[in-house]
Amino acid sequence: MSLKSHLVELRNRLIKSAIALLIGAVIGWILYTPLFAAISEPIKRIAEEKGFNASINFGGITTGFDLHLQGAFFIGAIVSSPVWIYQIWAFIVPGLSAKERRYTFGFMFAAIPLFLAGLYCGWWVMPNVVHALLNFTPDDRGASNLVAATDYITFIMQLILFMGVAFLVPVVLIGVNMAGVLRGKIMFKSWRFTVLGVTLVSAMAAPGNDVFTMFLLAAPLLLLYFGAMLLCVWLDKRRDKRRAKLAEETEETADSATPLSDLDNI
């Protein structure tokens, strides 16, 4: 394809992705109100349990509209993720070899459900995380915890998105291993740096820099990472056995062949 054809193809893929995102945003606009009620429930529950004033504070006239629009596009990006992920894959795949296409197709086939599963996991742990963090508010009738709506929505989105990305880690590692770029033993050698990196990323992704949220974010990512490394080591062993068997068969075939000197004597 010429450069112009590539640009036309890119434009078409972007238009399709944008249409899917807008449709998803419309769905997100409708779902925002019941979802906001669901994420507000932990704050109401902790206020009733401890007896202090806890609520979400909208600090400006346009804050409610801004957050509604932001939440709608965030939900829309999640709803439309299968479409725009496919559009990215469809744009890249024509330039790949048959083997590379199989790898990228397998990656896309596994990445979408894992990403959605990670988002669901983030949504599932969210009430417990919010409740646990608000539980540190002093148990006093005169105390209050007025959470800024912007900070709270950002916290929820970061938590859910981080969990979605965390579930993609094993797919990336296994894909790199299957491509022969990185062996499982090499991954294990750098486990200390991995733990340090995951801890730093979790600390940055956890608003407020609290240890509890950082641990909840880091733990699943570390479990997935080490699980992927074990699988990569197992795949390496299978690959090495297959290569050794093929080498033995090749040597046996070469030994059973008639030497050239014997052919000269016939």
UniProtKB/TrEMBL annotation:
Bilayer topology: Multi-pass membrane protein
Keywords: Cell membrane, Membrane, Protein transport, Translocation, Transmembrane, Transmembrane helix, Transport
InterPro entries: TatC
Recorded coiled-coil stretches: none
Keyword Amino-acid biosynthesis: no
First-listed, main subcellular location of the protein, grouped into a coarse class: membrane
Segments of this protein annotated with the region Disordered: 247-266
Biological process (GO), any one: intracellular protein transmembrane transport
Membrane-spanning ranges: 14-32, 72-93, 105-126, 155-179, 191-208, 214-235
Gene Ontology molecular functions: proton motive force dependent protein transmembrane transporter activity
Localisation: Cell membrane; Membrane
One CC-aspect GO term: TAT protein transport complex
Family as reported in the entry's similarity comment: Belongs to the TatC family.
Subunit relationships: The Tat system comprises two distinct complexes: a TatABC complex, containing multiple copies of TatA, TatB and TatC subunits, and a separate TatA complex, containing only TatA subunits. Substrates initially bind to the TatABC complex, which probably triggers association of the separate TatA complex to form the active translocon.
Cited function: Part of the twin-arginine translocation (Tat) system that transports large folded proteins containing a characteristic twin-arginine motif in their signal peptide across membranes. Together with TatB, TatC is part of a receptor directly interacting with Tat signal peptides.
NCBIfam families: tatC
Entry protein name: Sec-independent protein translocase protein TatC
Gene responsible for this protein: tatC
